[in-house]
Every structure is written in structure tokens, then in C-alpha cells.
Please model this.
Amino acid sequence: MNQRAVGVSRRELLAQMGAGSLAAAASTFGPLATAAAAAEPWQPTSDRKIRLGVVGGGFGAAFQWHKHPNCQVVAVSDLQPERLKRLQQVYQCDKTYESLEKLVLDKQVEAVAVFTDAPSHARHSIEVMNHGKHVICAVPAAMTLEECQAVRETKEKTGLKYMMAETSYYHREVIRARNLYRQGCRILYTEGQYYHHAVTRIGSWKNWRRALPPMLYPTHSTAYYVGVTGKRLTKVSCLGWRGPGEEWVDNQYKNPFACQSALFRTSEDTFCRINVFWWGAADGETGSWIWESAPKVQVPDSIPLPAGLEPGGHGGSHGPLVHEFICALVEQREPAIDVYESLAMTAPGIVAHRSALKDGEQLAVPQFDKDA
Model:
């Protein structure tokens, strides 16, 4: 596979809080021309402003909600005072809450951006929807299959919009591959990988990153298949590499693996290899595809954005994520990365970790689609 590492690691992003953007990863497109077809410019359909609350002043401060013409940040929250202050400064918002649980009581807030610690994502998303508000949540959507089911049930019960902020979905090469697939180009094999050396040693709320099983953070990789095809990963065999040091011997997850590699069968009867490594001389989110025949059509590889809204960090994905969520609410439609797509990217990693604990035993991946 011809792959090129993304130029800025998530570790650097956490340090810089979104300054700069990631270089696009290369993909296996054969002789496809490098010039992409131009996407149609964005045209506003309404002057309505979505009243948004933002929770989580770490990664949550890296998104340009305040620069979208259809969005107004009306409240912010973080448990840590210094991060709460950062949210105030970024979004020029005076209304603050000391917790998500208090922010969701605000009747002015109609949608919430949840960028809290990963183990709390499912619980916080459910809390938001149960208080009658739409939600966009950082990845992953959940960390257990039971949480996947609970998120789905809550979304279906409330009828509110749910979106997962998966950055790989809006990498330029993924946008291009998705448009090629929609033109009828067939994929035989997909690879997706997220490499982030020593990420588990970065400080985190209640130390949630320490010895986190790699496959419980799968969506930057699984998006290279699910986010392109809209199809599903159905079976998996996964192996793990035992990490160095004490953290991999004694940790809250009882997880020995610093690196995991999984081979999936897809609902199209093709193959998808997913890597998530927390150790090694590599950094970045990349992917590639082998096509049945080399695509020759030109398709867009970008999303048209409103004037003043920049593509932003994580490979130019922040702007498109903001734009898609806000437009979905304004247009009263489901977002592209809806609850079913989100869980289709999340659940396979949970099962892959179980497979690794069973020395690679092939396991079926449960589906959380509407009619499943």
C-alpha cells in the first residue's frame, strides 16, 4: 500500500488545541487524476441560528462553532476552571456551567457538543438527549456494546439528532473515495490505521487514557471503510502486542495490549484491515483502498463551507464536522454520521478487543442499525 503519514499527530493537536491542519494521507487510486472536480459552493437555506452549548474545554475548544452563520454558542461547561475559561475566551460566551448535568437544564440550549472524556461519551450523550437536546459527540460513541445499544435506543426514543465527530470521515482522500464509491467504483480491500506513540501517557481526566485498549478507540481507522461505503464490518479476528512497562500489567481496563491489528470481513464480502497502535515510530491517521479496477472519473475531495469557516485541524475535518451538524439541524434531517453510522464505526473495535483477548478468535460483530 502507498501510504503517507499524517503530518500532525493527535498528541501535537492536544498540545496546540487545533492550531494548524493535518496533511492528507495518500490512497491507492491507481491512475486517478490528482485534480479533483470542484464541489458546488455552499448556499445558505435559512438565517436560523442553532443555540449550542459546548462541553469540554480541551479538544472541544478546537472547533469553529462561533464562525458558522447558523450557529451561536450560548453556554459552555467544563469541570476544570482553566478549561472553562478557555471555552469562554474561544467562543466569547459569558454563560458558564460547572457541569454538563447543569448545562442541559438550560432551556435556551437546543443542542450540545460533547467533548468530555471517552468513557463518559455514551452516558453524556444519553443525558443530553434525555433533556430534549440534539447532540454531537467526540469519538468513540461508546466503550461497551451495552452502551452502543443504550445510545441507539435513546436516539430512537427521543427522535433527536445524534452525530459523532469522526475526523477521518472528512479527510480529503476519504471524501474522494466516498464519492468514487457512490459513482459505482467497487472496493476489494481497505486499510485504516491510527498510530499515536505513547498517547496513553498523556494526562487525562481520571487517567482514562492510561492503558486504554487501542481497539476501544477505533473510529479514526474504521471510518476508512464504513465512512466510505456505508456498509458494515461483520466478523473480526484481532491480535494484540503487549505493551512495555507497568501500565500494561496493572490498569483499570485489565488490558495488556499497546497495539492491536484486526482483520474484518465486510457485509460486501470483502476484507478490511484495521490497526490502532499506541507504541512505535509512527504517528497519524491514514488509510488506503484497492479497487476492483482503477477509477478514472474525477470527483470532489472537499466539502464547500460558508465564508469564514476554515477546514481546520485533523486533516481539514473540523470545519466540515461543524457545518454538517449545524446544517442537519437547520434542515431538519439526519446528519451524515448519524447514530447508526457512528455505532457501525465504534462497535467493531469493541468486539476486536474481545478477539485479541481470545488470541485472535474470530467473532461476529453485532449490528446496531435501525432494523437490526
The first helix runs from residue 10 to 16. The chain is about 30% helix and 20% strand. The radius of gyration is 20 Å. Confidence is low (pLDDT under 50) at residues 1-35.
